[in-house]
Amino acid sequence: MQQPDPSSPAAPAPADVIDVEQAEAALVEHYPRLVRLAYLVLPPRLGRHRRVLTAHSVAQRSLPRARTTSAPTGGDPGYGYVRLRVLRGALEAGLPLRRAAWPRRSQLPPLLPQVWGLRLFPKSGGADELALDQRLSALDGPARAAYVLRGLERLDEPAIRATLLAAGCAPGTVSTALVTAAAIGAEPALLASPEFDPCSLHARPTDLMRRRQHAKAAVAGLAALVVCGALLGLPGGGSWGPDGAAAPPYARNPAGQAALDPQKLTRVAPTAWESSARTDFSVWPARGPLTGDTALLRRALAVWARPGPSVRVSATPGTAAGAPPGPAQLLYAGGIDQARVVVLYDGLRVVRYAEPRDGTGGAALDFARVDGADAGLSGAVVLDRTDGNVRYLTAPWVTRASVHDLLEPGAKAQRLSRAADGTTAPFASPALAASCTSWNALALTDATGTRLTTDLGELVPARLTSGSPVAPHDSAPADWAATACSLAAARSHGVRSVNSWSYARQPLPEGNGTARWVCTRAETWQGGGPRTLALFRTPGASASVVAAKSQTAAACGARDPLVLAGVRWKSRSGVWYLVAAGSAKVGSVRAAGSTVAGNLLAVKVARGAEVSLTGRTAGGTEVATLR
To answer: Is the per-residue pLDDT at 239 higher than 50?
Structure first.
């Protein structure tokens, strides 16, 4: 047999053989990632609902019909094959239809999956995601694919070039796409945001009144005529009219029409708050340089009443996202960073409408419940979050604003500059931080004192208080120095206020110093679902340990100002203990067969042993552990 010549060029790597089962396993395992890739590569002009369905359709049609071969990818060959098929299908879906050629399957609306009666769209992100989505929408398909392969798949340039060529892109197109993608200044990590996750979706109904009319017409035997009329009556072209991104009107009544008229917006006088018996959003004046922009206000009201499929809608838990019941109150209209922003109030909710400065595509609508807000809860509203920063509009009674890093209580507060209309300069927001190396709080000062608040991802910052749940008081920055990072558990849950209660100090066994027990309770605007944590911190520890948590318990709150929690703790000598502490009114604690008087307990336990913990007040009322 002839031996190969060692000096001859290396033969090309053999192709990978892909079984249908292997490709199916890769598809099932990486399905969310593949659908996200397809969604990002698909052209935004399809609309978010169509993009979601097409992304799923492209991924589900990526399986081979029989055993096949694929060029070596250096990784899982099954995943490399289905990724290439998904990429090819997404690129084909973005090609324009031509009269001289039959359309490809990906260019047509997907047959499967189908959704009837609902509009689906991913969760809304922040201003960074909006800016990235706008940049990607300006690119062609290959450039979007190159950026996504680099940021989401972490491929280097040679691998990206080979993948795009295998997907059917011309060499010249690939070179241009690589240069264009490299010029995008956005952070590639944003591609992992929920904004671009077509597997985690919000759903809204289609036009309910029109569906009901069609059903009645079908019963009467006029289904065909109604369908034709509906098709002829659909708005065409997708262009922006006076109502911007709003869906077609479906009801006409005096209150509904008044709510859409910018001339009927309530505009409070600038000094009304000075003589009013109320100190809340109802006495905020209309501020901002665009309060006279009737076209902007009309678009904001129309989108509020009828958000179209391209509008990103978000609402804090327990907040209705429906149309205004009547004319709303205008709080602000102006240009913030790269957006035009309108803030409205209807007596129950604060609503923020935002659209890009250079157009009306990609509008966003955010709702936050604020019923029962007093001066301490209506001191500021978020105008914008971008590049990790937040910018507020402060209440007219606020005389000073400053920023404190709660993890550095000894540091000097940073004076926050404000414009004449009450808008603040941007500063780093903890709601957007991936780690807890700092935690900024906004201090608002008025004639009655200073209140500490923090951004938890809502339109209205949460108020920070300290002390017993029966009589909490406004916090000082030092009150949160050891527990500020626990506030991350309360992000985006509709929280109105968070109280920190240092309820016990416990001498640790074997002379290991004194531990501190703190209970934090986040109250929500909807009243239910409080977030309660019992935190344990040993001397010298850099952070507190979560000993117990609950989303339903009344403990640590005004209705049940009692708390009991325990945690396993290892002494410096290596001995394991169960240490537990209750609030001052806990008269005895029992665990591991031992009962001790008072609210503190420390008993030796085996590591991993199941131990029950209970307590009683001096009056005999049983106190359960927080859970």
So the answer is: no
